[in-house]
Design brief:
The complex is a heterodimer of chains A (about 80) and B (about 575). Chain A has one domain: Roll (Ubiquitin-like (UB roll)). Helices cover about 10% and strands about 30% of the residues of chain A. Chain A is built from one helix and five strands, in the order ββαβββ. A five-stranded mixed sheet of chain A has the order 2-1-5-3-4, covered by helices on one side. In chain A, a hairpin with a 2-residue loop joins strand 3 and strand 4. The termini of chain A are far apart. In chain A, about 40% of the residues are buried. Helices cover about 40% and strands about 15% of the residues of chain B. A six-stranded mixed sheet of chain B has the order 2-1-6-3-4-5. A six-stranded mixed sheet of chain B has the order 8-7-12-9-10-11. A three-stranded antiparallel sheet of chain B has the order 13-14-15.
């Protein structure tokens, strides 16, 4: 299934050809979880990565629906 | 350590040892204790009975990284209660290295008279007339003072807003490059400084009197552990040095909690154009600096230098809360306008949050359209000019709401909220309501706990406890002079233990692990609440305005759900 991923924070440095307006389109097996998504992108949870969809932070075992648009963010504590 | 009292009524200066009752205190713990002990709680905040206290933290002036913060304490003309607002830059370390624990400004100069307070490298303290700086904005003031006294000085000063005694006025502090772009922004303390007739404080850097450390070896070990913790944390080690606090634009919008159009929605259309990532791209393209050291002894470098299309300096540092106040609340999706507003606030001596939200309330009242770039600049300039409307605006969102008879004013104790909507980040609402400071995100910002999935931001469960515990931690950080960005990277058990060890090693008084940080934090907040009670504030002041409890916030369409009874349990002492 296709998933559209927008990446934020310093995680973007991993994707030199990243285009802000389109993000990245990746192919995942149906039923893939947040953990699978991060593994596919080679983003380690130790980088403080979290995934949001529809304005909610997703748990690692959450199954991502097909054609989803998700955001990969880093943990930040304050401004 | 020395304790300096300056009486502005009769221009006397007394330098003594720290009184026994204040020994071992620093930063917020010292300013709040002095205010509670010495300021008549019902006094006029702009009258001679109020005091303005400058105190570096207990760790400032040592080799501990990220501790060049200075607390400024007083009775606030904005909230009517106690206030501690702290600033970075270089002055915290400079004051501490001269062996000074506190500078207490008392009395009041005759109206219209302004003075400079200078402390030289030998610790000599002198007051001198500041006629030539009267009415001057802060960049020009600091430039003139550093030219006169030398670049190896740190400055804190007020601009026109402080001289006009406006309730959103800040006290600006010079950064490493000698620019007044750091601020003790909140609570209208610039007006207190203005009421005293003090235009600026000039302090020599590089004092030889090292802040004493009781156990140097243990302290050195703790410093190393803290450096390691800060570098290893992706927040302080990666995100802050590359994107600064603007990195929060993406996550808070992605959580639906970015207060937009004066809190009418939780996501700003086009937020990507003013995100940390977009700003970093613009800065790089124009030849500015995406990472910059703003404060002495900083290892995080969360600051930036924003430049215009020709590469000319506009402002430093362009921060998340300012981006939100104009970008989100006022709907201006234009980073150049936001940067110009940021510079103007620093130069006029204004809190960017209280001012940006005041503009948003005026727009919400129909005075101008949301998104009107020109109006933002014109309205801000009106404050500097001291026009009638400029003074209404410069007194903050509550003043503007009253003027337009608009009840949609996002404040607690008259101080504006910050860039986290309490309907989508419930615990931040607990913090806004219950901190003795008025709505203040720095008292306990739970956004990291939400993103880290330790807590559900939309559920009322666990929010009171989470806010309470973090308020204790932050109160301790504010007492030590440790910057918030570093302190929030010291929340793991190991890093927290290093922080406890550092404070114990510095003072020579062992803090029991079970007392850290809660017992220290309780003592500080108890003192502050005691002052507020005596000043006439009650639990009715510890409430969010109706707009947060009655108007659902899209996209989650939730309201603030924590009951009054639960809020009152936050600090039931």
């Amino acid at each position: 299934m296709k998933v559209n991923v927008k990446v934020y924070g310093t995680l973007r440095d991993k994707f030199p050809d990243y285009i802000d307006s389109t993000g990245i389109e990746i192919e995942l097996p149906e039923g893939a979880t947040v953990h699978d998504l991060l593994s596919n992108l080679k983003i380690s949870e130790s980088q403080g990565a979290v995934v949001t969809m529809d304005y909610r932070i997703l748990k690692n075992d959450f199954s991502i629906p097909k054609n989803a648009e998700v955001q990969v963010l880093q943990t930040v504590h304050s401004g | 350590m020395k304790f300096i009292r300056v009486n502005m009524s009769n221009k006397t200066i007394k330098v003594d040892d720290v009184p026994e009752k204040y020994e071992g205190l620093g930063g917020r713990s010292l300013t709040s204790t002095i205010v509670n002990e010495e300021v008549p709680p019902k006094c006029d905040p702009l009258g001679p009975e109020n005091k303005l206290i400058f105190a570096p933290g207990t760790l400032s002036g040592t080799t501990m990284i990220n501790t060049s913060r200075i607390s400024v304490g007083s009775k606030s003309p904005l909230t009517g209660g106690i206030k501690e607002s702290n600033a970075g830059g270089t002055i915290g370390a400079a004051v501490a290295k001269l062996g000074i624990a506190a500078i207490v400004i008392e009395g009041k100069a005759p109206e219209g008279e302004f003075h400079l307070l200078q402390i030289d490298i030998d610790g000599n303290v002198a007051l001198s007339p500041a006629e030539e700086y009267k009415g001057m904005r802060t960049y020009k003031t600091v430039e003139g003072l550093l030219e006169k006294y030398g670049k190896k000085n740190s400055v804190m000063c007020i601009g026109p807003a402080g001289e006009f005694l406006l309730k959103s006025s800040s006290i600006q502090a010079s950064d490493v490059d000698g620019r007044p772009c750091r601020a003790a922004g909140r609570g209208g303390l610039g007006a207190v400084m203005g009421s005293k007739g003090l235009k600026a404080l000039v302090v020599a850097q590089g004092g030889k009197e090292k802040a004493p450390v009781a156990d140097p070896e243990r302290f050195k070990k703790a410093v190393k552990e803290i450096i390691d913790a800060i570098k290893e944390d992706p927040f302080s080690g990666q995100v802050m040095p590359n994107l600064g606090t603007a990195a929060l634009v993406a996550p808070v919008n992605s959580m639906g909690g970015f207060p937009t159009y004066n809190g009418r929605q939780g996501v700003l259309e086009g937020w990507e154009k003013i995100s940390g990532e977009a700003i970093a791209e613009i800065i790089k393209k124009r030849g500015g600096n995406t990472t910059h050291m703003g404060c002495s002894q900083c290892i995080i470098h969360c600051s930036n230098e924003y430049v215009d299309e020709k590469g000319k300096y506009v402002t430093s540092s362009l921060e998340y809360e300012t981006i939100w106040a104009i970008g989100g609340m006022s709907g201006v999706v234009d980073i150049d306008t936001i940067a110009q507003f940021d510079f103007m606030c620093d130069d006029i001596g204004l809190d960017t949050m209280n001012t940006g939200v005041a503009i948003a309330v005026a727009m919400d009242s129909g005075y101008r359209e949301f998104g009107d770039k020109k109006a933002v600049i014109e309205m801000t300039e009106e404050i500097a000019q001291g026009t009638e409307f400029g003074r209404i605006l410069g007194n903050g969102p509550a003043s503007v709401g009253k003027h337009f008879n608009n009840p949609r004013v996002p404040v607690v104790k008259n101080q504006s909220i910050a860039a986290y909507d309490p309907r989508a980040l419930q615990g931040n609402g607990v913090t806004y309501a219950t901190t003795p400071m008025g709505a203040d995100h720095t008292a306990a910002n739970l956004v990291g706990a939400y993103i880290g999935q330790q807590l559900d931001p939309l559920s009322p469960e666990g929010q009171v406890e989470a806010s309470r515990n973090l308020q204790y931690t932050m109160a301790v950080a504010d007492a030590t002079g440790m910057c918030m960005m570093a302190a929030l990277s010291l929340l793991s058990p190991e890093a927290s233990e290093a922080f406890r060890s550092a404070i114990s090693a510095k003072t020579g008084k062992e803090i029991k692990p079970e007392d850290f940080p809660s017992a220290m934090g309780i003592q500080i907040i108890k003192t502050e609440k005691e002052f507020n009670r005596k000043a006439g504030l009650t639990n009715k002041d510890d409430r969010l305005p109706d707009m947060f409890t009655k108007e659902p916030l899209p996209p989650h369409n939730t309201v603030f759900k924590i009951s009054d009874e639960e809020l009152d349990l936050t600090f039931n002492f």
